[in-house]
Specification:
The structure holds 2 protein chains of 2 kinds. By secondary structure, chain A is mainly alpha-helical. Chain A has 2 domains: 157 residues, no CATH class; 40 residues. A two-stranded antiparallel sheet of chain A has the order 1-2. The termini of chain A are far apart. Chain B is of the alpha/beta class. Chain B has 2 domains: 231 residues, Response regulator (Rossmann fold), CATH 3.40.50; 127 residues, Rossmann fold. In chain B, the strands form 3 sheets. Chain B has a 7-stranded mixed β-sheet with strand order 8-7-9-10-11-15-16, with helices on one face. In chain B, strands 1-3-2-4-5-6 form a 6-stranded mixed β-sheet, with helices on both faces. Classes of the chains: A mainly alpha, B alpha/beta. Chains A and B meet through helix 6, helix 10 and helix 12 of A and helix 1, helix 2, helix 3, strand 3 and helix 4 of B.
Chain lengths: 270, 435
């Protein structure tokens, strides 16, 4: 029988190993080149199970044996214990990510994301931070893969490849990429929509999901959380304007972050 | 400065975001609802209903299979309910669409069992979906019957368990008799074209086994990349100098149409017997002219066999049910040209087999699962309204069914039966023991 801790550590090690390759891409390339390298590598990884079909099950997938034993005795099909474990792990990663983003290093990472040239000019090691962020996200992805295998007791080749990878990007975009909770909300919403439509519509599930994505992209370019945040700022501005007797246009021009919503002034980044 | 860009003033307090997320999740959860239910109409069945959860893929990849599954499941359930249900218990169906995504299939199967409280699971089209659900039902301890699709041999040859059943012959059960026939009729050396990915490779392996068992051989093996638009370089390789006795074509979907068209352009149909492609339902009810001369094997012919009253009644009822379905489904199947074919037959008999087993075991719900397993394991039926295509018998050891199958040749829009194979003449698929 596999030791659950050993299995968890192995999953993390495998995830980190793969993300090291992507970290190399982050160092040697930028922009479109980086995008293409990661997409092509993802496509290549999707074919790996076919090369070793006897071990991986190939297109048929692979059952996970003794899943309760390797889930620390928590059966995903019985009771809520396993889901509390999922909840605790999710909260752990959220809190850690919040802490890191709030730290000095986190602010540097955000600055690099917005303007790497300026961050480098200020003396920060852009490459080192990019490698660190890639490895950190690789660890979260590895954790997700480990928990998926425990939850479903079966792993599929379809989980690899572009389709699933694009899904994760979509979930984040819909929820809002500038926040920790945005991707969580996007994932919950889109997964729910997909499964809900799958049990209510006869043939048009994918059409409705596509329309929902279009609506979000058109009307909430900053994602659901980003849009809600912008509305909150707008409400705050309207209230402060009424108290200060200041024209709304002047208040908006002052306020950074509302340019997307109103199509107005450039962002004030200092 | 950077501090201005990323400082606290740029982000709202964390609790506001968290509260928004919780509110959003609650709103999403509040919108949650049930699944599509259909149960046909019945005034006679008044016991507590028996609910069947059906994983019916409606993705483009599985559009035909999904459409056939929907129509034939609805038809079989309507017939059960109109004749009084299962000892007075009406049968309800809860459809769920995994969209040809194995992980969704497993998640929906779990949802159907644990939230919709279905008594039996049916369906899923892709092999990976079926194998994932098969693995799940052993833990959920609920009967699962595959429907349309689920072609992987592993389902009953390697991964079998006491809860899972498949009715239609697959893999070696089909390839060995077909190979025997074509080797005996046409010769021992064959060329094969196959889609060069997992499905095609598994077909290649199955035909190698079939040919070996029949004393023949694959003398020429031609892999074709998936979604290849120019088939000429591959089709032109097929030997017509007498070094092979025929061609096995295992292409599927759009690749099949392109390959068949190119085969016709090279006039290979006139030079070689071509084996593999069969069933009008795969072509919206109308065979393209390029398929004339092809030989295939199926438990159900595309058009009703006129001398078989059960089959005529089944095809008539199928047409009647078709008119009640979603227009998109009707269109997918070819409107007035639609036929059940072997894809629809698999779905229809999955439900009728369950009906027979439920009736004989006095099944009333999930608590009677062990009785239903016992009845399904021993199920044997003669050609009838429940199995209009021919006889049926279940192998109790691996839960793989065997049906009467027909080897037939496409002749324009007709299918000429060349040979009929009884269920007990089909070879076993493996040695798996369903425990």
């Amino acid at each position: 029988m596999l030791n659950p801790v050993l299995l968890m550590l192995s999953a993390f090690a495998a995830g980190l190993l793969v993300s090291m390759l992507f970290a190399v891409y982050a160092v040697v390339s930028t922009g479109l080149e980086y995008l293409l390298l990661t997409l092509l590598t993802t496509s290549a990884f999707a074919a790996v199970p076919f090369l070793f079909a006897n071990v991986t099950g190939g297109e048929n997938g692979l059952p996970v044996k003794g899943v309760v034993d390797i889930s620390f005795g928590l059966d995903p099909l019985v009771g809520n214990g396993f889901y509390w474990l999922l909840c605790a792990i999710t909260v752990f990663w959220c809190v850690l990510s919040w802490y890191l983003l709030a730290s000095r290093s986190g602010r540097v990472m955000i600055a690099i994301g917005r303007n790497p040239i300026r961050a480098a000019a200020m003396g920060y090691s852009v490459r080192a931070y990019q490698v660190a962020v890639t490895l950190y996200s690789g660890a979260i992805a590895a954790c997700g893969g480990w928990l998926y295998a425990l939850a479903h007791a079966f792993v599929f080749q379809d989980l690899l490849g572009l389709a699933n990878s694009v899904n994760f990007v979509l979930y984040s975009l819909v929820g809002g990429v500038d926040t920790i909770v945005g991707p969580l909300l996007g994932t919950a919403g889109l997964r729910f929509l997909s499964e809900y439509l799958g049990t209510t519509q006869s043939t048009q599930t994918q059409l409705y999901i596509g329309l929902a994505l279009l609506v979000v992209v058109y009307f909430l370019p900053a994602g659901v959380v980003g849009g809600a945040r912008q509305l909150w700022h707008l409400r705050h501005l309207v209230r402060s304007r009424s108290q200060a007797d200041e024209p709304l246009s002047a208040a908006l021009a002052r306020e950074a972050g509302l340019d997307t919503l109103l199509g107005g002034a450039d962002e004030q980044t200092g | 400065m950077i501090e201005n860009a990323v400082g606290p003033s740029a982000r709202p307090p964390w609790w506001r975001t968290a509260a928004l997320a919780v509110a959003g999740l609650l709103a999403v959860a509040a919108c949650g609802g049930g699944a599509t239910q259909s149960g046909g109409g019945s005034q006679e069945a008044n016991g507590s209903p028996i609910t069947i959860g059906v994983l019916d893929d409606q993705a483009p990849l599985t559009a035909v299979e999904g459409a056939e599954m929907r129509v034939n499941t609805d038809l079989a359930v309507a017939q059960i309910n109109s004749s009084g249900g299962i000892h007075g218990h009406k049968v309800n169906v809860v459809f769920a669409d995994p969209q040809a995504d194995p992980s969704k299939a497993v998640a929906l199967a779990q949802q159907l069992v644990q939230q919709n409280n279905v008594d039996v699971l049916v369906g899923a089209v892709l092999s990976s979906e079926c194998l994932g659900v098969e693995n799940l039902v052993a833990r959920l301890q609920i009967v699962y019957v595959s429907s349309t699709g689920c072609a992987s041999e592993d389902f009953t040859a390697k991964q079998c368990n006491q809860y899972s059943f498949r009715l239609t012959p697959q893999g070696q059960q089909v390839n060995i008799p077909l190979s025997s026939y074509i080797v005996k009729q046409y010769g021992t050396k064959w060329s094969i074209i196959y889609p060069d990915y997992a499905f095609g490779q598994s077909q290649l392996a199955a035909y190698k086994v079939g040919m070996q068992a029949a004393g023949g051989a694959l003398a020429q093996i031609i892999p074709i990349p998936q979604n290849e638009t120019n088939m000429t370089p591959y089709i032109s390789k097929i030997s017509t100098d007498g070094s092979v006795n025929g061609l096995i074509n295992t292409e599927v979907g759009a690749d099949l149409v392109r390959a068949s068209t190119t085969i016709a352009q090279f006039n290979l149909n006139a030079k070689l017997p071509i084996v593999g492609v069969f069933g009008k339902e795969r072509f919206a009810g109308v065979y393209p002219p390029s398929l004339t001369g092809d030989i295939g094997q199926s438990p159900e012919l595309s058009d009703a066999a006129k001398e078989n009253s059960f089959d005529v009644a089944y095809h008539t009822a199928f047409k009647g049910q078709l008119g009640k379905e979603d227009p998109a489904i009707i269109n997918t199947l070819g409107n007035d040209k639609a036929v059940p074919g072997d894809l629809g037959y698999e779905a229809y008999t999955a439900i009728t087999a369950l009906k027979l087993a439920m009736l004989s075991s006095n099944f009333t719900g999930k608590s009677d699962t062990s009785k239903l397993i016992s009845a399904m394991s021993k199920l044997k039926a003669k050609q009838s309204a429940d199995f209009p295509g021919g006889d049926f018998q279940m192998n109790a050891s691996d839960h793989q069914g065997a049906t009467t199958t027909y080897i037939a040749k496409i002749n324009g829009q007709q299918e000429d039966v060349l040979a009929t194979i009884a269920p007990d003449k089909l070879p076993p698929i493996g040695t798996c023991q369903a425990k």
